[in-house]
Design a protein that fits this description.
The chain has 350 residues and is of the alpha/beta class. Helices cover 44% and strands 15% of the residues. Helix 9 links the parallel strand 6 and strand 7. One of its GO terms (molecular function) is DNA binding.
Length: 350
């Protein structure tokens, strides 16, 4: 048997052993043997086995008529919010025989652009940006340009969240969910409420703050800027923001964290200071990630169906349009949140 100069078995070696052309061997090995007879296919696969030929994964991806991978861009898959979204995305991808490629951007827009370029080069079937949108016109222009080029080459795009970018979308009810959260506390009688918000550049932060401010207006309450602390959507961000709020506004009777992870940090900071929750200060969160029900006291929050949102986004991404029909408008699915009342919220102390 003749092998390549380095001793590595090549495609040409397989073709020679099977007595077929290299192109026929390639089609059989890469699963694109529609017009190859069963006898030829059997010869090629026997040669592969005898020579212990290992196909080139990248060449297989390029040769297959159907792209098998799907790219997902999240801010941080270790964040419980994105972990739940990813569970839903993974379930639908697996049901369709697709491989999920997960990219962590850590809320860095430039890294998200780089990931789209990389995923385009890998010829994935779809790209799902699953993090918050950005208030960044330059980034949105560049991101849109990359995604449009990808779509024109046959790729599909579905996003989770409110984005100023192309593609189908699953949009969580952030503004109305925050309105429900504010309403809950104001109806309990709270007057002095502090807010732990995420980064200003994120549309999620803007939308959730807008809902709280709408509730404050409807109930004749104030949410002055000094009672809003911006930090990372993280446990440590929530803890440091809670400490700053309590030092700046010692009369607060409630803290609204704009995600559950920050609320958990706030609970820890208050516990270290000996502040009883909810007897002295109520704490509420947003998203209803699994840990929200396990902390003490269990967290009042807004429940978003995160796994279902992931499922919907992947279903949109893999639902190929009929090429014989006129291009359709982007599809948008809105997902509502609901209040989940637990032990961390109560009327203010008298």
């Amino acid at each position: 048997m003749a092998e390549g100069p380095s001793g590595v078995v090549r495609l040409a070696d397989v073709a020679r052993r099977a007595r077929v052309s290299p192109s026929t061997a390639s089609r059989v090995i890469n699963g694109n043997a529609k017009h190859v007879t069963e006898a030829l296919r059997t010869r090629v696969m026997k040669a592969v086995e005898e020579l212990r030929y290992v196909p080139n994964a990248h060449a297989q991806l390029l040769a297959r008529p159907q792209r098998t991978a799907v790219g997902v861009i999240v801010h941080d898959v270790s964040d419980p919010y994105f972990a739940e979204l990813t569970r839903g995305l993974q379930r639908v991808a697996a049901d369709h025989g697709r491989l999920l490629v997960i990219c962590n951007s850590y809320r860095d827009p430039e890294r998200e652009l780089e990931y789209v370029e990389l995923l385009r080069a890998q010829q994935v079937a779809a790209i799902v940006p699953a993090g918050s949108g950005y208030h960044d016109a330059k980034f949105n222009r560049e991101f849109n340009a990359e995604l449009r080029a990808y779509q024109q080459a046959g790729g599909r795009v579905a996003v989770i969240g409110r984005h100023d970018i192309v593609g189908d979308a699953v949009v969580p009810g952030n503004e109305n969910g925050a309105y429900l959260l504010g309403t809950e506390l104001f109806q309990l009688g709270h007057q002095r409420v502090g807010v732990i918000a995420g980064p200003r550049v994120l549309t999620t932060t803007t939308d959730r703050l807008a809902g709280l401010k709408r509730a404050a207006r409807d109930y004749g309450r104030q949410l002055p800027a000094r009672r809003i602390r911006y930090d990372d959507f993280s446990r440590d961000g929530g803890a440091s923001a809670a400490v700053e709020l309590m030092d700046r506004e010692p009369g607060l009777t409630a803290i609204i964290a704009l995600n559950d992870t920050m609320a958990v940090g706030a609970l820890a900071a208050l516990r270290e200071r000996g502040v009883a929750v909810p007897d002295e200060v109520s704490v509420v969160g947003f998203d209803d990630v699994p840990i929200a029900r396990d902390v003490t006291p269990a967290l009042t929050t807004i429940r978003l169906p995160l796994v279902e949102m992931g499922k919907r986004a992947m279903s949109l991404a893999l639902d190929a349009p009929d090429p014989s029909r006129r291009p359709r408008a982007p599809r948008v699915q809105h997902v509502a949140g609901e209040i989940v009342r637990r032990a961390s919220a109560a009327p203010p102390p008298r």
